[in-house]
Write a structure and sequence with these properties.
The chain has 460 residues and is of the alpha/beta class. The chain is built from 22 helices and ten strands.
Length: 460
């Protein structure tokens, strides 16, 4: 027997066997195609589970899960604490976590135009760590690296900007499918485009994943149970995902109604979280089921070349969040205050989600103050389109649009082996929907079909 203890938010997925037939878990796969990740402990097979976060698990000599018990339960226990005291506690905790995680190693810091990596930059700079920063932007897309470079320069970090080019996926898709086990769709793993360049950088990655969920509210209202379920479903169901899942559900002759099945699963999982506050409860749901099965899945790409550290995933950070009043977390208040207090230069740099405003004036991001930017931005994208360089905003646009991409995509989704899992007619219908009806709506189903095709190839 061996014992495995999982973190509150695990940085990797750990699997174990359970008693049952070694058959495909079609119901779980339908949910996967709808939301882009497996729910709870689901996997591709009925006799295999993913160990739950925050649990102590007993595994026998044959790899079977004997017992699983929680060692941590998400809760909402807000303390009677001032905002300044909460800010001081966060500052000390965050910097101590990063100091302990990176030590004297050379840190590789992926920077974005948002707050999570910017908050890390503040801490790393304050701790005088050796940092190599980088960022990437889409070809013909928003120049996110411009903001990132300003952040790096303000902290005296070395910096490199990468361009994510059209069709990069096809040179690395088979390697990626083995790295993430096909537990996440492929078009979001932008780091695969630059993985070879990152191998020669520092000693470890410090990654900012999940800060935006922990340090913001999920709703400013107290909701009924049904409305909480509705909000979660709205957040996790991808465009076109429900249509694909319902089609597969019918083709596999599964019993009942898929939408009801998905809703019941979400409602059941939500009911097990003993939190009354709707915002804190939904944050807990996302941290228990979304982070470990979606966000974590592609962390394996980073880990394939260097060790990874995640300050927001840290157990102590999760425990801290449970004790902070929702009002202090809403609108990223703690992170904004920390950056403004600790590094005024970084607070003056554009906040990408609030562009063209920064951390000092983002409250002006509303009409009429933001109209000049909105008009100029619309004009810029229109001009790009006129000259034949469509403005790229989403990952799939670089992978699925154009003749060369189509040729590579068709090679994977149209093959006899894959037809054993998904009929050729279904694949054709969704591919035609992407090409002829609405490429935004059908991009997710197409991405999921591509993921399933690689999984089928790797497991046939």
């Amino acid at each position: 027997m061996k014992t495995l203890k999982t973190d509150i938010i695990p940085k990797s997925q750990t699997f174990a066997k359970v008693k049952g037939e070694h058959t495909l878990n079609y119901e779980a796969i339908c949910i996967f195609t709808t939301i882009g990740f497996f729910l709870d402990e689901d996997t591709y097979f009925k006799d295999e589970v993913c160990l739950k976060p925050g649990t102590i698990n007993t595994i026998d000599e044959s790899g079977y899960l004997v017992k699983s018990e929680p060692w941590f339960n998400w809760h909402y226990s807000p303390r009677d604490i001032s905002f300044d005291d909460a800010l001081n506690e966060f500052s000390e905790l965050f910097e101590s976590i990063i100091d302990q995680q990176v030590g004297d190693k050379k840190v590789i810091l992926p920077l974005s135009g948002g707050l999570d990596s910017r908050t890390q930059a503040v801490a790393l700079n304050h701790l005088d760590k050796n940092v190599e920063a980088y960022s990437y932007s889409f070809e013909n897309g928003y120049n996110e690296a411009k903001i990132s470079k300003q952040i790096a320069d303000a902290c005296n970090f070395s910096f490199e900007a990468f361009k994510i080019t059209k069709g990069y996926l096809w040179d690395s898709i088979e390697e990626l499918s083995k790295i993430n086990g096909c537990y996440a769709e492929f078009t979001h793993a932008r780091q695969m485009a630059v993985i070879d360049s990152l191998k020669s950088k520092g000693d470890l990655f410090s990654l900012g994943h999940w800060g935006d969920v922990l340090f913001d509210s999920t709703t400013n209202k107290q909701l009924s149970v049904e409305d909480e379920v509705n909000l979660i479903l709205k957040k996790i169901i991808k465009p076109g995902g429900l249509q694909l899942a319902k089609t597969l559900w019918k083709s596999w002759s599964l019993e009942g109604d898929f939408e009801l099945y998905l809703r019941d699963r979400v409602k059941s999982l939500l009911s097990q979280i003993n939190i009354e506050n709707s915002s804190a409860k939904i944050r807990a749901f996302k941290s228990m089921y979304w982070a470990p099965r979606w966000t974590t899945a592609n962390l394996s790409v980073f880990e394939s070349i260097h060790p990874i550290k995640l300050p927001y995933y840290d157990n102590e950070m999760c425990k801290f969040i449970c004790t902070i009043p929702e009002g202090y977390l809403a609108d990223r208040k703690l992170q904004v205050a920390y950056i403004k207090k600790s590094n005024k230069k970084l607070s003056k740099i554009v906040w990408q989600e609030q562009k063209p405003f920064n951390l000092n004036n983002f409250h002006f991001n509303k009409s009429p103050y933001n109209l000049p930017y909105r008009i100029s931005n619309k004009l810029y994208r229109t001009l790009k389109s006129i000259i034949g360089k469509n403005y790229v905003q989403r990952n799939w646009e670089l992978q699925f649009l154009g003749k060369e991409n189509a040729k590579n995509l068709e090679k994977y989704i149209f093959n006899e082996d894959f037809y054993e899992l998904v009929s050729k007619q279904i694949i054709e219908n969704f591919y035609d929907g992407f090409k002829e009806v609405d490429n935004v709506k059908f991009s997710h189903p197409l991405s999921m079909l591509l993921t399933l095709s690689l999984w089928q190839k790797n497991n046939s």
